[in-house]
Amino acid sequence: MKTKNRKFIFISLFAILFIAAAAFDFAQGSLRNQNESRPAKRNAVTNSDSSASSGTKPAKGPVLIVYFSRAGENDSNSNIRIGNTHWIANFIADKTKGDKYEIVPAVPYPKSYQKTLDRAESEQQRGARPKIKNKLPDIRRYGTIFLGYPIWWSELPMVVRTFMDSVDLNGKTVIPFSTNGGSGWADSLPIIRHAYPRAHFLRGFEIEGDQASHARKQVDRWLDGIGY
Ligand SMILES: Cc1cc2nc3c(=O)[nH]c(=O)nc-3n(C[C@H](O)[C@H](O)[C@H](O)COP(=O)(O)O)c2cc1C
């Protein structure tokens, strides 16, 4: 074989190898992106990606359970007396013996599910901060804050954002918990992390709302797992 031909074959082989490697790298990258854009995997106990964010482990300190929850007509067409997230807050309080603080909106949300959907959608679109009726907690007394909310339009209810604007949880151990109609955490966790860049986050808990009232064991297992 002539030297010119050998050179040509060698260059062609090299080019094929190069293209194959680039294609493999591209495929890996798009797979990674796909996984990142997928909603958080749903599983009541191992379901959180709200893992620790700071290197030093702060003391647990006394526990406060902050939550917002709405009773009344809900998505399964039933009328509930105790909100789904409220149930989870109660289970956490029973096990940790922490204090509870309920975020109560100054203007209550309607009993009607549809009217609540409409109001919540408009509040979210406007970036509203609905007023809170009750006095805010004295956060200096606590080391660990559990923060609970239902998923509303894939995010946190705006009244919870009012709370987050008013109470600085940086430096605290923050543990989210949430109930939903099937969308898992949806887009809620990055919002909390962004609000408190210097908080120490621990693995949270989310569950579908219609399972919340009988989730005591799952809650206990989760709390055992994170040392509470
Ligand atoms: C205004 C509104 C918006 C909602 N948006 C969602 C949503 O985007 N994804 C979802 O899975 N569930 C959604 N749901 C269902 C609630 O998250 C679910 O019923 C939750 O358990 C209610 O909790 P609560 O009883 O503590 O208020 C929505 C409910 C309401 C009232």
Number of domains: 2
Distinct compounds present: flavin mononucleotide
> What class, by secondary structure content?
alpha/beta
Distance between the termini: 75 Å
The CATH superfamily of the largest domain turns out to be Flavodoxin domain
Shape: globular
Low-confidence runs: 24-46, 48-55
Count of alpha/pi helices? 6
Helix content: 25-40%
Mind telling me the CATH class of the largest domain?
Answer: Alpha Beta
Order of helices and strands: HEEEHEHEHEHEEH
Number of E-type strands: 8
CATH architecture label name of the largest domain: 3-Layer(aba) Sandwich
Estimate the strand proportion. 5-15%
Give me the Rg, rounded.
24 Å
User: How would you state the average pLDDT, rounded?
Assistant: 84
CATH topology label of the largest domain: Rossmann fold
Organism: Oenococcus alcoholitolerans
Domain Flavodoxin-like: 83-224
Region (Disordered): 33-58
Keywords: Signal
How would you describe what is shown here?
Residues 83-224 form the Flavodoxin-like domain. Keywords: Signal. Residues 44-56 have a biased composition (Polar residues). Residues 1-27 form the signal peptide. Residues 33-58 are annotated as: Disordered. This protein has 228 residues and is of the alpha/beta class. The chain has two domains: 1-38; 63-225, Rossmann fold, CATH 3.40.50. Helix content is 39%, strand content 15%. The chain has six helices and eight strands. The chain has helices at 3-37, 84-96, 113-126, 158-166, 188-195, 216-225; strands at residues 63-67, 72-73, 79-80, 99-102, 144-150, 173-180, 200-201, 205-208. The strands form two sheets. Strands 1, 4, 5, 6, 7 and 8 form a six-stranded parallel beta sheet that branches. A two-stranded antiparallel sheet has the order 2-3. α4 links the parallel β5 and β6 (173-180). α2 packs across α6. The longest helix is centred in the N-terminal third of the chain and has 35 residues, at 3-37. The protein is globular, with a radius of gyration of 24 Å. The chain starts with a helix and ends with a helix. Residues 69-70, 74-75, 83-86, 116-117, 120, 150-154, 179-183, 186, 209 line the site of flavin mononucleotide.
